[in-house]
Design a protein that fits this description.
Shape: globular
Helix content: under 10%
CATH superfamily of the largest domain: Cupredoxins -  blue copper proteins
CATH architecture of the largest domain: Sandwich
Number of helices: 4
CATH topology of the largest domain: Immunoglobulin-like
Number of strands: 32
Largest sheet: 6 strands, mixed
Oligomer: single chain
Distance between the termini: 15 Å
Structural class: mainly beta
Number of domains: 3
Bound molecules: CU-O-CU linkage, copper (II) ion
Radius of gyration: 21 Å
Length: 464
């Protein structure tokens, strides 16, 4: 993969970023010439929002001036630029979850970039190489900032994709609110040491069970991102024929029914749904996990039937992810465990002040200017297999920054060779994830249950 070429391009883009200088470049995407994109302004703000019956919630955080953070649209292979302007009284950054980009754009404070303090800004510029559904969020004081609203969805379009009759994007997340609609404590230590602390109010696009209209008999592309800090979902679609076409930003090798599909924080799925023919018929997306199943959102058929066939959904183009070479791959063992130690809070970047979890027995000390040594040093361009074992009774959505892996095998289930950036490992499962270390830099690897991430279950690999 020619990240170097793209890096060169990005430098140009970053320099031209704020102005109107046009540049032409010939890169891996062919001889296009593009004007430097005007940066999207992502300004953090503290707002009021109506998240539940019973009143407006204060101290909600967003990008922009009202409502949910915008769904960002990018195009595969085309430069994107955004300026983060920090207008809240807490340092922040933006991480572009799942997008393979240069390390300096990855948004992890200390490891790759400085904090963006109140009143400061930071320019992000990169060219997404992959089409799919991704998302963005801070990587500093994450429990607080994400918990209060800073989680947004990214759609990277592939102009070559088949047109659907409708597209619906859902940002799924919870809120920890009391009866008076105000925020309550973001976590409880005893829950942080188990599955994490669940929200009390559950939303899709910041709404309770929103309903969207879609053409009767039409094909809908439903893009779902789980941006919650804690909750694992088990999906069920009722009232229509639905099939999973992509997971975590990549097409699935073989399509399957979404029913009972388990996905954790950080994961995304794309469904093709064939709407019912009768006008007014309702299709519901449900979460059936746990003791309080819930209808998350519904789609309603409108108009005369378009009479489409779900089998007409063309296969999605694979993303240009390098193929792992298993004959030369070096293996890296990774054990996820619980620790009992209490590590004092260093107060930096929202440390929770506890250490409940560890990777290879080392609990992450919190985001500090002096992080622990990398878990492994990888050689640029070489193949690796992470052999990961979950020694805890909980599930963990483990996320790798900067590179996509292929799911090779699991000790407990049949797996497809999915390309992904987040794997939900179950209790007592062992899984092998293969990838090519083709992106230089320091890349975090952590559990995306934020309380686990912030209380030890974080590490990083260095690619040189
Ligand atoms: Cu979604 Cu380290 O992040
Ligand atoms: Cu975890």
């Amino acid at each position: 993969m020619t990240f170097l070429t793209r890096r060169g391009l990005l430098k140009t883009a970053a320099i031209a970023g704020a102005g109107s200088v046009a540049y032409a470049a010939v890169g891996r995407f062919g001889g296009w010439a593009a004007a430097s994109p005007d940066p999207v302004i992502l300004q953090t703000a503290k707002i009021q929002a109506a998240l539940m019956d019973g009143g407006q919630t204060s101290n909600v955080l967003t990008y922009g001036s009202a409502g949910m953070p915008p769904v960002l649209r990018m195009r595969k292979g085309e430069p994107f630029a955004a300026r983060l302007v920090n207008a809240i009284d807490d340092p922040t950054t933006i991480h572009w979850h799942g997008i393979r980009l240069p390390n300096k754009m990855d948004g992890v404070p200390f490891l790759v970039q400085p904090y963006v303090y109140t009143g400061d800004h930071f320019d992000y510029a990169f060219t997404p190489p992959d089409a799919g559904t991704f998302w963005y969020h801070p990587h500093c004081n994450t429990l607080e900032q994400m918990g209060h609203g800073l989680t947004g969805v990214i759609v990277v379009e592939n102009p070559a994709d088949q047109k659907f009759d409708a597209e619906v994007v859902l940002n799924l997340r919870d809120w920890r609110l009391g009866d008076d609609a105000q925020f309550i404590e973001q976590f409880r230590p005893r829950d942080a040491a188990r599955t994490g602390t669940y929200g009390t109010v559950r939303t899709a696009n910041w709404l309770d069970q929103p309903r969207y209209d879609a053409p009767a008999g039409g094909l809908v592309r439903l893009r779902v991102a789980i941006t919650d800090v804690t909750r694992i979902y088990a999906f069920l679609v009722e009232g229509a024929n639905a099939t999973v076409i992509a997971l975590d930003g990549n097409p699935v090798p073989e399509r399957f029914s979404p029913d009972a599909l388990l996905l954790g924080p950080g994961q995304r799925m794309e469904l093709a749904i064939r709407m019912p023919d009768e006008e007014g018929a309702v299709v519901s997306l449900r979460d059936v996990r746990g003791t309080k199943p819930k209808v998350l959102a519904t789609l309603r058929s409108v108009g005369g039937s378009l009479k489409r066939d779900i089998r007409d959904v063309a296969p999605l183009e694979a993303n240009p992810v390098a193929e792992v070479d298993l004959s030369t791959a070096q293996h890296i063992s990774l054990a996820l465990s619980a620790t009992a130690e209490n590590v004092p809070s260093d107060g930096i970047c929202g440390s929770l002040g506890y250490s409940f979890w560890a990777i290879n027995k080392v609990p992450w000390p919190g985001d500090t200017p002096d992080p622990t040594a990398p878990l492994a040093e990888l050689k640029l361009g070489k193949s690796y297999v992470i052999d990961m074992e979950n020694l805890t009774p909980q599930s963990h959505p483990i996320h790798l920054h900067g590179m996509s892996f292929k799911v090779l095998s699991s000790s407990t289930r049949q797996v497809q060779p999915l390309i992904s950036d987040t794997y939900l490992i179950q209790a007592n499962e062992k899984v092998s994830l293969g990838f090519v270390a083709d992106n230089p830099g320091d890349w975090l690897l952590h559990c995306h249950i934020i309380e686990h991430q912030k209380s030890g279950m974080t590490s990083y690999v260095r690619v040189v």
